[in-house]
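1st attempt posting a full record on here, be nice pls
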Amino acid sequence: MIDRTVYRVVGSEGYELCHPVDVGDFECISSRIADESPVRDHWMSVRMELVRSDEGKSLRRSDAPWFGSQALIFRREVVDALGGYLLTYGELLPLQCDDADVVMFNSLRRLDALNEQASAIMRHRDGRIMLVTKPVFKASVIEGVDVFKLRQMPAGPTLVSSRFVDLWHEHGFEGLDFVVGGAL
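the predicted structure (as tokens):
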């Protein structure tokens, strides 16, 4: 039996974050990677910094310092182990960070994988999807695809398969959690 479980990627609680030095770059990054066109050829590297404490508590070292679900950040060790695999589904974009050797993964796979009739969806007035509270995926569309975003939510979360989750854990990487169900 083929496992077609879809996981939403989230940053693990208590692990370090990776944020732009210039707060305005949050929106800049999101707008640059909002469609399925590669941006590497005209990518202008963004200055990032690791956030290693929160409210006075030290955060643990992460192999994927959390930026957001729309674009994952990976340390060099992840790229060395999974880089070729990741490039099957997207591109690795250089970042400037004095604290760590990190890159941003931009998923280029946008799939029409959401069964909108079977899913519970909240929409904007213009009909665009605001939130999917109960996603249902088209099995035939996601089969054999390990990393993707929904075409209906181009700036939405990165979604992964069981194969990705297994590879992450097999390499002993830390800093990401994988959630089945829940809102997108």
